[in-house]
Amino acid sequence: MVLGTRRTILGLAAAGLLAACGRDRPMTPTVTVYKDPSCGCCGEWVEHLKAAGFTTAVIETTDRSALQSRLGLSPAMASCHTAQVEQYLIEGHVPAADIRRLLRERPDARGLVAPGMPVGSPGMEAPDGSREAYDVLLVKIDGTTAVFAHHA
Questions:
Q1: Tag placement on the chain: N or C end, fewer CB within 10 Å?
Q2: CA 46, chain centre distance (Å)
Q3: Cα 135 from Cα 63, distance rounded (Å)
Q4: Which residue has the higher pLDDT, 54 or 14?
Q5: Dihedrals φ, ψ of 9, to 5°?
Q6: 137 assigned to some structural domain
Q7: Which pairing describes strands 88-92 and 81-85: parallel, antiparallel, or unpaired?
């Protein structure tokens, strides 16, 4: 009788541990990145995402304009790479933490953009460690933007 009880207790403990591990490990969706084959900073940004736990799929292309247009991205918001994660657009050197926040909050929006190529942003790190302040913008459904995060 004691042996059966001990097995039951161990079995329940193991099941609880497995359930807890699964509950604590959130599913991370794949980020599909469209980039120019010769762009080094885009590859560095992909490595930043991987280091942050994202799975990535990279599609090399020399023309992202049709994709950007389909996703409703204005030319003024463009950067050197375009990505999609779930229903959201990610343009430029957006930090992985901002993408996680977007996926957690799930705003009714097109996605996030970091216009230009800010020095010190993920993938644009300077050898001397210098950084420039920049904003990551939330692109709303109507195409207007709001500051989603400020990075100094």
A1: N
A2: 9
A3: 25
A4: 54
A5: -65, -45
A6: yes
A7: antiparallel
pTM to 2 decimals?
0.80
Where do we find the tokens 């023309």? 63
Contact 114, 121 (CB under 8 A): yes
Q: Token pair for residue 45? A: 């940004």
In a domain, 43, yes or no: yes
Q: Domain of 68?
A: 28-151
- Structural domain tally of the chain? 1
Would 83 be classed as within a structural domain?
yes
Residue 12: inside a domain: no
Question: How many whole angstroms separate alpha carbon 5 and alpha carbon 15?
Answer: 15
CATH number at 145 reads 3.40.30.10
Residue-wise pLDDT tens digits, 38-52: 888 999 999 999 999
The label of the residue with tokens 């992909």 reads 46
According to the model, what pLDDT value does residue 5 have?
53
CA dist 42 and 93 (Å) reads: 8
The half-sphere exposure of 10 on its side-chain side, counting CA atoms within 13 A, is 6
